Amino acid sequence: MASYTEEKGAILHPGNQINRLSSYNTEGVYGWPGVEAYELIGYAKITNKSGTKADFKTLDLIVPSPDRRPDDRVRDDRTSMVVQASSERPSYIYGVSLAIGQDSPSAGEPSYPASPLTADIQGTNTEVLCLGGDNSGAPGLPSSTVTNGLRAAGASLAIGASGIAQGTSDVSAGHAPFLTSITNSGSTYTGADFADAMMFETTSDLTFKVFNMNAVANTGAANGDGVFISDADADAGKAAYIIARVNYLRPAAAASFNDIVGMLDFASQVGGSDS
Question: Any idea where the domains of the chain sit in the sequence?
Answer without folding.
Answer: 40-68+75-251
